[in-house]
């Protein structure tokens, strides 16, 4: 039996997320963002299909299929329910995503086990925005604080 707690991660109605895929056993972290109507659970379907970006990056960096991973977790971080984050325009979401990935790369050596960040994200012109910086720092702080229990 597999038990999955999805809480509100399927709800993307007027909600955007930064999400992190984590496997401590395989030492990987993948950062993404979505404002999909189906939330991070819906986005997971795209990541795990045959041409999904998480699947591809896993094979490229590890040399084997993500199907062999038995400890992968999806961590979802809701973004504010404001137009900057929930609209089709994605530069605000991309800025948070970029800063989270950048900070996780810096943080990885401090955590045990360490990990490789296997996602690829775009630089956004909004990364200097103080609100964006605070959001990203909050997400990274939550990740770091809870890392030992994952």
From TrEMBL:
Protein's name according to its UniProt entry: GIY-YIG domain-containing protein
Organism: Leeuwenhoekiella nanhaiensis
């Amino acid at each position: 039996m597999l038990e999955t707690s999805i809480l509100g991660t399927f709800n993307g109605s007027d909600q955007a997320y930064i999400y992190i895929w984590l496997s401590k056993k395989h030492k990987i972290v993948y950062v993404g963002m979505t404002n999909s109507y189906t939330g991070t659970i819906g986005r997971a379907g795209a990541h795990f299909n045959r041409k999904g970006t998480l699947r591809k990056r896993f094979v490229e960096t590890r040399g084997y299929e993500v199907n062999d991973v038995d400890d992968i977790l999806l961590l979802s971080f809701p973004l504010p329910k404001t137009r900057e984050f929930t609209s089709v325009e994605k530069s605000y979401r991309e800025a948070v995503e970029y800063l989270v990935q950048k900070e996780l790369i810096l943080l990885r050596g401090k955590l045990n086990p360490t990990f490789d960040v296997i996602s690829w994200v775009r630089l956004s012109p909004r990364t200097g925005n103080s609100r964006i910086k605070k959001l990203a720092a909050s997400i990274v702080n939550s990740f770091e604080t809870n890392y030992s229990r994952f």
